Amino acid sequence: MSQTPSSIALEAVLPSEGEDATANIVDWDRPNDAADPINWPSRKRWAHIITVAILGLIPNMATTMVAPGIDGVLADFNVSSSAVSSLAVTIFLLGLALGPMFLSSMGEVYGRLPVYHAANIVFIAFMIGNALSKTIAQFMVFRFISGCAGGMPLAMGGGTIADVTLPAKRGFATALFSLGPLAGPVLGPVIGGFLAAGNGWRWTFWLLAILGGAVEAATIIVMRETSPKILLERKAACLRISTGNAHLRSKLAHKLTPQQVLAQALVRPTMLLIRSPVVLALSLYAALVFGVIYLLFTTFNGVFRGQYGFSASNSGLVYLGLGIALVLGVVIFGNLNPRIQAARMKADGVDKPKPEYRLLLMIWLSPCVALGLFIYGWTAYYKVHWIVPIIGTFFIGLGAYFVLMPTQLYLIELFGSKGAASALSANNVLRYMGGTFLPLAGPSLYRALDYGWGNTLLGFLALLFALPPVLFYKYGERLRAKEAVVL
After folding, report:
1. For 451, which DSSP code?
2. pLDDT score at 417
3. If you compute the radius of gyration of the chain from its CA atoms, what whole number of angstroms results?
4. What is the C-alpha separation between 376 and 370, in angstroms, rounded?
5. Partner of 393 at 20 to 30 A CA spacing, among 256, 292, 315, 360?
6. What is the maximal distance between C-alpha atoms in the chain?
7. ∠ CA 185-187-193, rounded to 5°
8. Which of 147, 156, 56 has the alpha carbon at shortest distance from 113?
9. What whole-number distance in Å separates Cα of residue 231 and Cα of residue 237?
10. Facing residues of 413 across strands?
11. Topology of 26-255 in CATH?
C-alpha cells in the first residue's frame, strides 16, 4: 500500500518498539517542510516582512506627528510649562520602552499573531482617546498607553523576520524593519505640520487611528503565525489527538509558566546591561543619539518658527534634512555593507564574516552626528540662512542611521538566536529612555549655553561615545568569548 505524505509524517513522530524517548519529539517533517515559515514561498515571506515593517513605522510616526501642533495642545489645555511641552511629545517613547518589556513575552506563550492583533487594537483605541481627550492628564495617559501598545510590533518584528528568513539573507530585511524607528519620527512631523495647521492637532491622532486600522486589516489578510515554537506545539497537539499518544512533545516546547517567561524577559536584558560591556556601551550610544534627535525636535519650533518665521504648515518641512539623510543612509548601507564584508573576509582569509565587520560603517560615519550638531548649533545661534541648520540636521540623521543600524545587526550576530532578543530589548529600553528624558533637559541646557555651546557639548559627547565601537572592532574576538558566558 502506498504511503501519503501525511502518513509518512505520522510515522516519523510515532514511537516504535525499542525506540527511546526521542521518538516522541515532534519536529518538522524534513528540512524543506512547507509548514516551516522559513520555507514559505518568497512572496509570502516578503509580505510578512513588509507588513511588519509598516507595523513598526506607524508607532514611530506617532512619536512626533503631534510635535508641530504641540502649541495648540498646550493652548487647549491651558498649559505653559516647557517641561510638560517636551513630555507631551516624548512620553509616547516611554511607552515604547516599557510596554514591550512586560508584554512581549506573551508572544512566546500565545504566539506572535494574537499579540500583534491585540496591540494594534489597543493602539487604535488610545489614538482615538488622544483625539478626544479633554485634559492634559488624559492626553498624557492615553499617549503613554498607546506607546506601550505601539512598542509590541517593534519588540516582536525582529523575531518574525528571523522566523521567515535565513541568516545569510536577513540583513536587508532587518534594515527595512529598522528604518521605521528612524524614518517614522521624520515623516510624522511633515504630515503633522500640515494637518495641525489646516485641521487642528486632534486630526493628527485621527489620521494615526485610520492608518492603524488600515494596517490591522492588512495584518488580518496577510499575516499568519510564524513562531516555530507555537507551530510545532500546535502540530504536537494535533498528533496527540489523532494518534492517542499523550507523550508526544514539540522539539521546542518548554515547561516555563507565563510568569516565568515574563520574569525571563525582564531579567535577561537587565543582566546583559549589567554584565556585558558591549551591550551597555552600544545601548548608551544609541540612547544618546536617539535622545539628541528628539531634543532637536523640541528646538525646531523655536528656531525655525521663532527665528526664521516658518508657518505652522511649513514647519514640518524642516524635518526633511533628517529624512533625506535616512534615505541616503539606506542606499549607502545597501551598497557598501556587502562590499566591506567581502573585502574584509578576503583580507582576513576567513570564510564567514565576523560580527565586528558590522561596526566599520559605524566607525567611519557616526562622527557625522557631532559634525551636524556643531553646524546646527552655531548657525542657529548666529541666525545664518535657514538652509544651513537644516544641512546640519542632515549630517545628524546620516550619523544616527550608522549608529542605530549597525548596532542592531552587530548585537544580532554577536548573540545569535539564543540571546539576540534580550540584547535588542536592552538596547531598545535605553534608546527610548534617552528619547524620553534627554529632551527634558533641553530648555535648561539652551538657557544656560544657548544653541551654539549647548549643541557643541552634545557634539563632544557624541564623539566620546564614538570610541567604544573602535575598541570593539579591535578586540571583538576576545570579547565574544566573554559575551557567550553572559548568556
Report:
1. H
2. 57
3. 24
4. 10
5. 360
6. 88
7. 100
8. 156
9. 10
10. none
11. Growth Hormone; Chain: A; (1.20.1250)
Q: Are the beta carbons of 90 and 323 closer than 8 angstroms?
A: no
CA dihedral 352, 355, 356, 358 (to 10 degrees): 100
Distance CA 181, CA 326 (A): 11
Q: How many CB atoms lie within 10 A of CB 191?
A: 18
Phi and psi torsions of 324, nearest 5°: -60, -40
Q: What percent of the chain has pLDDT over 70?
A: 92
One-letter identity of residue 323? G
Q: Is 7 helix (H, G, I), strand (E, B) or coil?
A: helix
* Residues present in the chain in total: 487
Identical fold at 26-255 and 264-487? Answer: yes
Specify the amino acid at residue 298: T
Give me the numbers of helices (H) and strands (E) for the chain, helices first please. 19, 2
Task: Please state which of the four CATH numbers 3.50.50.60, 1.10.10.10, 1.20.1250.20, 2.60.120.230 is assigned to the domain occupying 264-487.
Answer: 1.20.1250.20
The Cα–Cα gap between 369 and 296 comes to 12
d(CA 369, CA 374): 9
| Tens of pLDDT, residues 175-199 | 778 778 778 888 888 888 888 888 8
Q: Which residues pair with 250 in a beta bridge?
A: 26
